[in-house]
Design goal:
five-stranded antiparallel sheet, 7 helices, 2 domains, single chain
Length: 351
């Protein structure tokens, strides 16, 4: 009787596939697949067995929600996971599979409750092989959730991963909307790839799931810190594309674009791992921020503060904002009609 109850909870996640229809799930390994410390969190996480993963693929009652996410390299502190796949729970159980992650053998995943970037851990974490997944039980219906994912085996530049979800009919974002701009899209490599992905993640965390940013970065200067890491002082022009904003009248979406200019310092280790990420603030205290992120480059700090910043040593990506937008649209599969494209292209075309 205990085993039957355990299997029923697991199969609820797989959208009401019955024990009778998938008898091979009666393996009794669910307890071994729960990652500690489970008592600290309201939601339980379980790694799928091979039979459960097979059932996920073969079920036909529901169409999985698919999306993209940038998979970052994990750090020792476990603090640089990528936020992805926000959703509002309408069931107590759901499942997640990272189906593809070029260059990565595994991934780490943890569930968070709340607004993306501001939530709190709702489950323990699990380390899972790529193309295998996890399922969660004990979700609160109506609660907003999202995931953080990272990898111990992905290359330092990260990669664009593909995921599939079952168990919620209110998944956000829409197809293709969560795909952030990545270094791969613009053929960036080495330090430029690591820097670009970190900056793109910064804007992704600031925006809603249906919006995205296209950063253009100029290297104003570099220096070595006491740890032997290279610090890049960057001038950032971010072209922000908004899809979640509604028109002043009516309920139809009103896509539009904006522009943000800021200064950022990204610290990279010798293997191009992002050690620290420091954006300059706005308003009171911003002068101090500029001086701190420029470090020993005191003359550069003064030039920035007086509005006489020197021309960047190099700028990447080399494409224009309109060209970057076209690359992003092609990579994400986002479909826009001419009426939706016009206000965005008009803003991105401005000098």
């Amino acid at each position: 009787m205990k085993l039957k109850k355990c299997l029923s909870a697991a199969l609820a996640m797989l959208m009401a596939i019955s024990v009778a229809s998938v008898p091979s799930l009666a393996t009794g390994v669910l307890a071994d697949q729960t990652y500690p410390p489970k008592a600290e969190y309201p939601v339980q996480i379980h790694v799928m067995t091979p039979q459960e993963r097979d059932a996920f693929s073969k079920q036909t009652a529901y169409i999985p929600t698919e999306g993209h996410a940038f998979l970052t390299q994990n750090n020792a502190a476990g603090t640089n996971g990528t936020i992805c796949a926000p959703f509002q729970a309408d069931k107590a159980n759901m499942s997640f599979v990272l189906t593809s992650a070029p260059g990565a053998a595994d991934y780490n995943i943890q569930l968070y409750a709340g607004t993306p970037g501001q939530g709190v851990p709702a489950s323990s974490y699990a380390a899972v092989c790529v193309n295998n997944g996890v399922y969660f039980s004990g979700l609160t219906e109506g609660q907003n959730y999202y995931f953080k994912i990272s990898s111990n085996t992905v290359p330092s530049g990260g990669c664009t991963a593909v995921y599939a979800m079952l168990g919620t009919d209110k998944t956000a974002p829409e197809q293709g909307a969560a795909l952030r701009a990545t270094a791969e899209m613009f053929s960036l490599e080495g330090p430029e790839a690591a820097i670009y992905n970190a900056v793109s993640q910064y804007y992704s965390d600031k925006l809603t799931a249906a919006d995205f940013g296209l950063p253009v970065l100029g290297v104003a200067g570099t220096y070595q810190n006491e740890a032997g890491n290279t610090c890049y002082v960057l001038e950032c022009h971010a072209y922000l594309c908004f899809f979640a904003v509604k028109a002043p009248e009516g309920d139809s979406p009103a896509p539009w674009a904006g522009h943000e200019h800021t200064w950022i310092c990204v610290e990279l280790s010798e293997d191009n791992t992002v050690v620290s990420f420091t954006p300059a603030g706005n308003g009171e205290g911003s002068d101090k921020d500029i001086r701190e992120l420029c470090g020993p480059l005191t003359s550069l700090a003064e030039q920035i503060l007086t509005g006489a910043a020197p021309e960047s040593e190099r700028v990447f990506p080399a494409s224009s904002p309109v060209e970057m937008f076209e690359v992003f649209i092609n990579a994400s599969g986002l479909s826009l009609n001419q009426e939706e494209l016009e206000p965005i292209l008009r803003e991105l075309s401005k000098p």
